[in-house]
Specification:
The chain is 52% helix and 12% strand. By secondary structure, the chain is of the alpha/beta class. It folds into two domains: 59 residues, no CATH class; 189 residues, Ribonuclease H-like superfamily/Ribonuclease H (Nucleotidyltransferase, domain 5), CATH 3.30.420.10. It has a five-stranded mixed β-sheet.
């Protein structure tokens, strides 16, 4: 029956078939000797192999979560931040609780992802997560209490805003969050080792980037839509030319004037 279909029709079906159905479909067309079909078979065999490797990677970065699930814990929250280092803008933290056995293809350290991929994953995470919460601390507070304490404050706000109280918190970095009663596990490079932290990192990054895009509309001399407040050459030159604006962190920029 498949031999009655054109190569283009088979290609269309291959694009539509699910990964679960793909091996059977490839087996069904394996006897088709047409060069175009054989090329499609090789292409989609590689695609399926890549899919299997991605599932293995997801399994690997879910080990922390699965360890706690196996101990009887039900809700694990990943926590991460974006914006500790910039000269301008807020620090943003996110807390994310994913369902058990969550599989989000392509999820990774947000810094390794393209803008388009981060945005795509941001939407998937928002659909899949059991609960998501954001904590935002403004530049004035950062100046008053310092960036480390402001980061902890943003993380506590994110955790407190979750609709489900987590049984365990996985936090990126080598610092434990202060003043919380929920058990926590700090994981260095956690956005590469924990699916929950990776999800939180993406949510925090996309949220902060969108905020900086909005600030660009208010203070468009500085290029916030490009560098998001980080200390690029363009940004530093703009500060020297135009001075500081209300979202600059005085404790980070006082030596630039």
């Amino acid at each position: 029956m498949m031999k009655e279909l054109s190569v283009q029709s088979i290609d269309k079906k291959l694009k539509e078939v699910s990964y679960n159905e793909l091996p059977n479909f490839l087996e069904e067309i394996s006897g088709d000797s047409r060069i175009g079909v054989q090329k499609l078979i090789k292409k989609y065999e590689k695609k399926y192999k890549d899919y299997q490797l991605e599932l293995e990677r997801i399994k690997e970065i879910s080990k922390y979560e699965n360890n706690y699930y196996n101990k009887g814990l039900e809700y694990i929250a990943g926590v991460d931040e974006a914006g500790r280092g910039p000269l301008a803008g807020p620090v943003v933290a996110a807390a994310v609780i994913l369902p058990k056995d969550a599989v989000i293809l392509g999820i990774n350290d947000s810094k390794k992802l393209s803008l388009i991929k981060r945005e795509e994953l941001f939407e998937i995470i928002n659909k899949e997560a059991l609960s998501i919460s954001i904590g935002i601390i403004d530049p004035q507070t950062i100046d008053r209490i310092n960036i480390l304490q402001a980061t902890f404050k943003a993380m506590r706000k994110a955790i407190d805003g979750l609709s489900i109280r987590p049984d365990m918190i996985l936090v990126d970095g080598n610092n434990s969050i202060t003043d919380i009663s929920i058990p926590q596990k700090k994981i260095i490079k956690g956005d590469q080792k924990s699916i929950s932290i990776a999800a939180a990192a993406i949510v925090a990054k996309v949220t902060r980037d969108r905020l900086m895009d909005e600030f660009h509309k208010l203070y468009n001399d500085y290029g916030f839509n490009k560098h998001k407040g980080y200390g690029t050459k363009e940004h530093i030159e703009a500060i020297k030319k135009y001075g500081l604006c209300p979202i600059h962190r005085l404790s980070f920029t006082s030596n630039l004037l």
